Amino acid sequence: MALSNGEIREEIQRLSEELIQRQEPDGSWRFCFENGITIDACTIILLRTLNVDKEELIRQLHDRIVAAQQPEGCWRWYHDDKEGHLSATVEAYYALLCSGYSRPEDEPIQRAKRYILDRGGIGQARSLFTKAILAATGQRKWPASLSLIPIEILLLPESLPLNFYDFSGYSRVHLVPLLIMAERNFRTRSVRTPDLSELFLDARNGEEDPLTLTPESREPLKLIQSGLAHLVGTPRRIRQAAVNRAEQYMLDRIEGDGTLYTYASCTVLMVFALLALGYEPQHPVIQRAVEGLSQMKFTVDSTGQGGTRYVTIQNSPSTVWDTALISYALQEAGVSSSHPAIQRAADYLRNRQHRRPGDWQIHNPGIVPGGWGFSETNTFVPDVDDTTAALRALSALHGSEPAVLGAWNRGLNWVWSMQNNDGGWPAFEKNTNKEMLTWLAIEGAKSAATDPSEADLTGRTLEYLGNFAKLSVRQDWVARGADWLLSHQEADGSWYGRWGICYIYGTWAALTGLMAVGMPADHPGIAKAANWLIRIQNADGGWGESCRSDQVRRYVPLHASTPSQTAWALDALIAVHDRRAPEIERGVARLIALLHEDDWPSTYPTGAGLPGYFYVHYHSYRYIWPLLALSHYVNKYGDSSP
To answer: For 586-601, how does the pLDDT look when each residue is reduced to its tens digit (9 = 90+)?
Structure first.
């Protein structure tokens, strides 16, 4: 049954008031960026390896991991991961024993052990991150795949056809510490390190079969070897120069909080790599890194879920992202730009605009810094999505406040400069899209090795340019972005979204972007996409997509509706339809009902990191996207009849 506009406005008011009340004194909003148990587990392993006295944190992380175990003995990344996740389970099992608060004979440990053995043992864990943690702590051999990339690649000049900076920034900051450790064949243990050898069923302690390379996977390796032939010096001197370069690469990218690139995952790897280089655990760089990791903890108080309370380590706190999106959503909901909450958020965001040069300038030289990053400690790793989010939040203020106008102009110029040569937009770095790097026989390379144009990033950029910068496809560079999107539409009418789950996310971003820059609603591509969204609508009126979609690269229904995915689909249909449609009415009713439910779909991860290995539950998303969709509904349709 369709809801009245009064009922919808009441929900908008409720969401708005709750968000305003949750704003921090500094103008930010702080919601948890939850990433399963992987970072929690590896933090415990690292702290025990270093013999760091952080007992309260270790106990809190231990208890959180135990609480997340499934009856089958496994750990999952998402609810419908029915078989469980072997790599996550290995990490959890290892961390629980490392902590000292679980013992081998404990029933949860025994269940986890049976699960691991039933699935072939630790040797079957496929995550490169898991393998690296096991290898660094002496549990297995270093993965053979890391030998494919010699550490000397860091010495290759950028003028060569393939060099280190052709990898994405995200993969580089993880790859460097891995290459250091593998080169040194590093392994370390402490008195708290358990022995996991009984969980290797092949009795080879994780030693892998020799790599079988395909002709395709050999191509990038040939280019790398060709480049290495140009290096001058003895192999020993070249190797040492490469190790020194790798060490300096990490040190130069440590943020003020001590973390590497503001990511917990590569910070953990960096600390192990520094140990491999001979740093003592008490070294100031290591101590600052440990403190930075500790500061990434978030205490979740889920009173609506049986009063559960737990502590987790966020891979990179989402404070800037959440603050920008919430300020924008509140303004779309009718909160004036002069409201103190919006003013405080604007001040917070202006102070987080980047002024330091970063690696993005390697492929985009001569551009003044002006982007924003994901977390508040991030000062030199901006990204397109966070930048357009911040610019939306500042849009209403840039015409009246000179300080905001300056920030706006620098941000807009930076976004414009980041457009790839193919017309689309990347996440972090321009033209970092050499496909052959995805052919490497390294787990995760297909998704992480490059930073190509993506439908979600291109669509969101076009939406900002059209609705807030007042540009359209009449501008050539905007038209190229729209053309890129239309040429990358899937056969069924959807688009794949890289940073959300997944086809619903990409289709929402593409449709709202194309409509914002002036594409007609009856364009065949737009009509096909809108029909696809209607076709996959759940019987209850909502939308939901499984995390498995990004692994099989096709839409997989969740068979349940989630708040954020329902809001994305609704927002896209509202952008396309001039009049209220029955599907939209059913969707709005279901969305409002979802906001008052507290079962598993309300916490289902709808953010993506690495297909198959890293998913995100943004605690802010049940507020942001529903508030935007409902506000856009009321703003567009008002009191009109269906």
So the answer is: 999 999 999 999 999 9
Q: 383: which strand partners?
A: 372
Contacts with 334 (C-beta within 8 Å, 6 or more apart), sequence order: 12, 16, 631
Instruction: Judge whether residue 401 has pLDDT over 90.
Output: no
Give the integer Cα–Cα distance in Å for 34 and 50.
25
**Angle at the Cα of 136 from the Cα atoms of 132 and 140, rounded to 5 degrees:** 75
β-strand pairing of 33-34 with 297-302? unpaired
Encoded amino acid at 575, one letter: A
Contact 53/307 with Cβ under 8 angstroms? no
d(CA 155, CA 169): 17
What global pTM score does this model have?
0.96
Q: How confident is the model at residue 147 (pLDDT cuts 50, 70, 90)?
A: confident
Instruction: Give me the catalytic one of 166, 322, 383, 385.
Output: 385
With beta carbons less than 8 A apart as the criterion, state whether 293 and 264 touch: yes
In tens, the pLDDT along 475-489 reads 999 999 999 999 999
SS3 553: coil
Joined together, the tokens standing for residue 415 give: 């976004």
For residue 26, is pLDDT > 90?
yes
DSSP state of 367: P
Encoding tokens for residue 311?
A: 């502590």
DSSP-H helix ranges across 396-438: 402-417
**Type of residue numbered 256:** G
Average pLDDT, the chain: 94
Give me the helices (H) in 418-454, please.
445-448
User: CA angle 317-322-326, nearest 5°?
Assistant: 165
Give yes or no: 385 in active site. yes
Rama region for 307: left / alpha / beta (φ>0; ψ in -120 to 50; rest): left
Q: And the tokens for 245?
A: 């370069």
pLDDT of residue 303: 54
Cα Rg of the chain (Å, integer): 24
Q: What's the CA gap between 590 and 509, in Å, rounded?
A: 21
Axis crossing angle, helix 5-22 with helix 319-332, rounded to the nearest 10: 140
Alpha-carbon distance 392 to 156, whole Å? Answer: 40
> 469-483 in b/e burial notation, b at 16+ Cβ within 10 A?
bebbbeeeebbbbbe
Residues near 555 by Cβ (< 8 Å), separated by ≥ 6?
492, 494, 502, 503, 504, 536, 545, 549
Residue 4 has pLDDT above 90, yes or no: no
Residue 640: per-residue pLDDT = 56
Pairing of strands 308-313, 607-610: unpaired
The token duo for 441 is 């026989």
**Per-residue model confidence as pLDDT tens digits over 300-334:** 986 544 457 899 999 999 999 999 999 999 999 99
- Are the C-beta atoms of 372 and 382 separated by less than 8 Å? yes
Read off φ and ψ for residue 34, nearest 5 degrees. Answer: -95, 130
Compute the residue count for the chain.
Answer: 642
* Residues 621 and 564: beta-carbon distance below 8 Å: yes
